[in-house]
Amino acid sequence: MGAGQPFGFCVGLVLGGLLIDSIGWRAGYYICAAANIAFAFISFWSLPEATQGSYNILSTLKNELDWLGAAIVSISLGLLSYILALVASSPTKLRTPVNVILLVISVALVPIFGFWMNHQEKKGKPALIPNSIWRNATFTSVCMMLLLSWSVLNVMEFFSSLFFQEVQNLSAIQTALRFLPSVLSGAVINILTGFYAYKFRADYLVSATTLLSAASPLLMALINPTESYWYSAFWAMVAAPLSADVLFTVAALVITSAFPDRTQALAGAVFQTLAQFGNSLGLAIMASISSSVTKQSAIPAKTSPAALMEGYRVTFWVSFGWVLLAVIIGSLGLRKAGHVGLKRE
């Protein structure tokens, strides 16, 4: 269940390519809207009812929520996401004064949020994300790995798609078909992790699969655009989702074993937020790097496949470095996690 997000991401990428070259890209938004409405109705029917008792929703909203903390972090992440989106589309937009000011405000709110969380904990008042949650080394390490791995997965899917279309001049459908190995390998690794995760130490399992995922950006960094798909690109697609898929499952198990029932939802929310933030962070940084390298290329035609490929190669190399950093974090930070997924009486 925890790996549904990365698996769904790969499936969506393939279906998106099929829709673009068939009934059109707008159809994808209509399908997503219809699916969300359907899932909303299903959730009303399938999710368990709230525990009966003296629970008062108005009192809870007033006294048990950290509204100021929520406002601070929402403004910070909102502004940062906006800036990252601008940088991903055009790195030069960061030079405008208003965007620089927004970036400074976003970054300045981060320590302010930390100080506010510390103040709320000391006073025994509700804290949106208590600083104490980061004292769990296993959870913190998993979150850091997830941020890096999810960033790399998103970058790999995005820039591999550009490689197939802009460098190899393939159609959207042909590009989508080349991502099918990611869907299949993701499905297989999800099933295997669910059945056998409890047999391995968490640090061994996560580090090994993350190291295997490092083959994906490495192969794309070394790829020859004229060679057969089956020589390098196929194996890169197979290895791409391994780390993110296993991490989602292991993280869910870590949360249930490392935190009491009251804070499991909070830990899960933090975990999911970092995963989504990794999307914006990785794509913005890599897009900026790719654009800068291409502009500095000695090739006169900056939109030519050769010039674009120079930028893409650098992003794949940087992604490879991020994956290796995630391996180091997992090896050191998960040493005390032991086996996860074992039933505790």
List the helices and strands and how they pair.
Blueprint: H1 4-20, H2 26-46, H3 57-63, H4 67-89, H5 97-122, H6 137-167, H7 172-177, H8 180-196, H9 202-213, H10 215-222, H11 233-239, H12 242-258, H13 261-295, H14 305-333
Helix pairs in contact: 1-8, 4-5, 4-13, 6-12, 6-13, 6-14, 8-11, 8-12, 9-12, 9-14, 10-11, 10-14, 12-13, 13-14
Task: Provide key terms for this protein.
mainly alpha, single chain, globular, 345 residues, 74% helix
What does this structure look like?
- This protein starts with a helix and ends in a 12-residue tail after the last helix.
- Helix 6 runs antiparallel to helix 12 (242-258), helix 10 runs antiparallel to helix 11 and helix 13 (261-295) packs antiparallel against helix 14.
- It has 14 helices and no strands.
- It is mainly alpha-helical and 345 residues long.
> What gross morphology would you assign?
globular
As a whole number of angstroms, the C-alpha radius of gyration is: 22 Å
* Count of alpha and pi helical runs: 14
| Low-confidence runs | none
Give the rounded overall mean pLDDT: 83
Kindly name the structural category. Answer: mainly alpha
* Total count of strands: 0
- The end-to-end distance, rounded to whole angstroms, is 22 Å
Summarize the structure.
The chain has 345 residues and is an all-alpha fold. The chain has helices at residues 4-20, 26-46, 57-63, 67-89, 97-122, 137-167, 172-177, 180-196, 202-213, 215-222, 233-239, 242-258, 261-295, 305-333.
